[in-house]
Amino acid sequence: MTNEQMTSSETEPTDDQPAPTPGTDGLTDTADSGGETTTDRTLLEARDLNVYYGEEQALSDVDIEIPEKQVTAVIGPSGCGKSTFLRCINRMNDLVDSARVEGELRFDGKNVYDDDVDPVALRRKIGMVFQSPNPFPKSIRDNVAYGLKVQGKDDGDVDAKVRTALERAALLEEVEDQLDASGLDLSGGQQQRLCIARAIAPDPDVILMDEPASALDPVATSKIEDLIEDLAEEYTVVIVTHNMQQAARISDKTAVFLTGGELVEFDDTDKIFENPEHERVEDYITGKFG
Amino acid sequence: MSQPDFSHDGIRTARGTAFRYLFMLCALLSILTTVAIILTLLLDAIDFFAQIPLVDFLTGTRWSPTNEPIAFGVLPLISGTLVITIGSAMVALPIGLLTAIYLSEYASDRQRAYLKPALEVLAGVPTVVYGYFALVYVTPAIDTILPVDLSTFNALSASIMVGIMIIPMVSSISEDAMSAVPDSLRQASYGLGATKFTVSTSVVVPAALSGIFSSFILALSRAIGETMIVAIAAGQTPRMIDLTDPAGMFLDSIQPMTSAMVQIGTGDIVGQGPAYKSLFAVGLTLFVITFVMNLISELVASRYREVYR
Amino acid sequence: MAADTGETPADGFGRISRTKDVAFRLLALAATLVGIVSLAALLLNVAVDAVGWLDWQFLTNPPHPNPYEAGFLPALVGSIAIMLMIALVTFPLGVGAAVYLEEYADDGYLTRFIQLNIANLAGVPSVVYGLLGLGLFVGLFNIGYGTVLAAAFTIALLILPIVIISAQEAIRAVPDSQRQASYGMGATKWQTIRNVVLPRAMPGIMTGTILALGRAIGETAPLIMIAAPTTVFGLPNSFFSKVSAMPLQIYNWASYPQTEFQYGVVAAGVVTLLVVLLTINSIAIIIRNRYQQRT
Question: Which PROSITE patterns does the entry link to (chain A) (predicted)?
């Protein structure tokens, strides 16, 4: 009932959302990311993106411009299509037989759904961290080295690359003496940082995170959150979360998806949480919705 | 008077208990069967070893239960079994493993719906039929196609047939193990830019390794115990084999343990002589080998079930 | 197609070679098909060879040294007689054991031991069951070499583990809510099993038992061990008649050197055996499909 009313009242303003966003130059956005210069160059850009699973529409007419080397949070109630959107970026939806994608999703200007794009090659530029930690039943070292091996980047000093990745994932200190132990022996939070190390080891441009802390306890969560903010210095991070406080804490930009796979508002995180344009978004943020 | 009666109904309780024990008896029959197998084999084998020393049996390199000079060395029979096991393993293990990968990782649901029952048929054909096929079709075919000197009875055709028969055992158990590998691991691998080949070989197969291992052992155990194919097609020539001479191993007639048992069983040997009793000594050897292998397979399999529960 | 931005690299994001991928896929498909295709070729061969030999005279005559007069009737009837006996023995025992393990037994040491033991029995070579039959039924119980009863009991023990395991699966598939509903009406355990669990599990149990009988009808080695005669000229007329069976007769004929036997009479026997087997399995599948449609 309520959903229907909201949808009807909200269909058109979505289009102008990206418009007020650009804060002229790199300076306005940097409140959260620690002051170093960030350009607002758009790295990922969706145009009229629609996704269907069989008959069901999972995303409808999504337009978004995700800036380089910042943390962009994607929030919304469950079933709103936020994970679907994330999986469009590295074409993981190709693995779902019933999924159909229409429209464009540009990465560095190139539509990743063009016929000449090899999804495997694409995924080598985009790392992904999943909802529950999914380390391989291999040693910690082999887990991190896996991506290097798969991508043919295992020439030279693999061990050094593994250690660097673990270091960047803030895990090295804890596992330094047990690199040959199974990744499955780590705690949940450590496993997730291991998965992050695995994702960044081959040095991708983008890191996609699908509710990376939802299966973790508060302490582990806060470690992951610190880590994500650090990662944004080098990588473009897109993180899906259902936890609004988390989005507010760690992201520079926030995209709010609401029912029906509709991107309702996309703006600086501060703006979204302090003064959203849309009543529906405000209702959602303040907990009146969903 | 006003209190309701919730007391036990004696007859109903007694009947329930009776059925409980009746069913329990049925279940215990399986243990009884195992005990009976062991006792049957052991008692007659002990009689046999009273006449033929155990050491001679286990280390003797000549098997000749009825023709002079009589000898009861089991090693030639074990060699024969080994040849068939190696030969069928070379057929069934790679084919079965690849089949499992195809079914688990590549095949569509539709393909699977046709392929899996078709594969099960391979294990459902009576072994006597496979033996006949090996003798009258496979051996002449190989003899025509390959430039080798193949005996009428040979280990090669028998091995191929045994191998084909045990493919489904390898493929179905391995596929179960591969299907049990959580999809999140495949996703993680795809997310790192792996191709399907890499996902299959570097994630799925290693993660399913204990299940695959278990299927291999079980299939080999089945090959060791396989009787009719070798009895019909592999011949009755107990001989020591030379592992460095594959042609000699496979192109000529051999005699595995099971085939020797059939030979004694179809012969006119009765009574208490060592030739008849040797049946049980060989049977015991066969039982112990396959029992240990089945046990290992079961233990390994239950480990992989625990990992992904 | 719609890519237009200037800074785009011309080749997208590069191409990863799929040669290995495609080759591996084809290899795996070939492996999947090789066994099926080989068997199909062999079956085709034997079917062609059986033409002209598999006729009414073959099905109704007793065996004969002259291939043109040789028949399969005693073996065919023997096999069916043995199979019916096996069904009578294994069905109650198998269902009873399965009911105990699924409905009564706790998850204790004994239960796990029984379960492991059943799994192991299913892997004991059939020739060893033959020795068990020889020692137990022929020797100890003195039922007689190669009689219908000795053959049936021996093979019954062989397929019993398979029957138990499949009956357990069928019973396990009965939803627990059904049991709860029955208990909720004040039924006892036995009433629940008899009126709710077994009726619901019966099609599955039947399917499993019939498939196991298909396995039983092809067994040869145990019959050899209990000294069933390879060739019998008359039909069995009591439980203690000496009996042959189709696979045993095939084994015997396969050793005849004449071409008429090797590529004629035996082929006819093999096709007959396979047709009987196919019939049995079809019945099992029909029962399963009818059951699946209802739920």
Answer: ABC_TRANSPORTER_1, ABC_TRANSPORTER_2
Q: Considering the domain boundaries, does residue A144 fall inside one?
A: yes
Residue A45 has pLDDT above 80, yes or no: yes
ipTM greater than 0.90: no
CB contact burial C194-212 (16+ within 10 A = b; e otherwise): eebbbebbbbbbbbbbbbb
**Which of B:184-213 have CB within 8 Å of C?**
193, 195-197, 200-201
A150 lies in which domain range?
135-203
Q: How far does CA C102 lie from the centroid of its chain?
A: 23
Are A81 and A257 in contact by the 8 Å Cβ rule? The answer is: yes
Q: Which residues lie closer than 8 Å to B66 by C-beta, 6 or more apart?
A: B267, B269, B275
Task: Write down the pLDDT at residue B271.
Answer: 61
Does the residue A167 lie in any domain? yes
Question: Does the structure show a pLDDT above 90 at A285?
Answer: no
Q: Kindly write down the DSSP assignment for every residue of B177-190, as one continuous string.
A: HHHTS-HHHHHHHH
- Name the least confident of A194-203, C27-36, C207-216, C250-259: C250-259
Report pLDDT for C1: 39
Pick from A91, A110, A153 the residue to mutate for testing the C interface (most C CBs within 10 Å).
A110
Neighboring chain B residues of C38 at a CB cutoff of 8 Å? 164
Tokens of C220: 């040869």
Asked whether B189 and B203 are in contact (CB, 8 A), the reply is yes
Say whether C36 and B133 touch across the interface (CB within 8 A). no
Residue A188 is assigned to a structural domain of this protein: yes
Fold of C76-244: MetI-like fold (1.10.3720)
- The H or E element spanning position A119 is helix A119-123
**A114 and C11 in contact by Cβ < 8 A?**
no
User: Token pair 């040294």 is at which residue?
Assistant: C65
Question: Residue A171 pLDDT > 80, yes or no?
Answer: yes
Question: Domain total for chain A?
Answer: 1
B26 — contact with chain C (CB < 8 Å)? Answer: yes
pLDDT, residue A26, reads 38
Residue A250 in domain? no
- Report yes or no: B127 and C220 within 8 Å, Cβ to Cβ: yes
pLDDT > 50? residue A34 = no
Respond yes or no on whether the N-terminal peptide bond of residue B69 is cis (omega within 30° of 0). Answer: yes
What CATH number was assigned to the domain covering residues B80-173+209-307?
A: 1.10.3720.10
Question: For position B272, what pLDDT does the model report?
Answer: 63
Among the ranges given (A2-16, B117-131, C135-149), the one the predictor scored with the smallest mean pLDDT: A2-16
A262 Cα distance to chain centroid: 17
Per residue in B254-300, pLDDT tens?
889 998 888 888 876 666 678 888 889 999 999 999 999 988 888 88
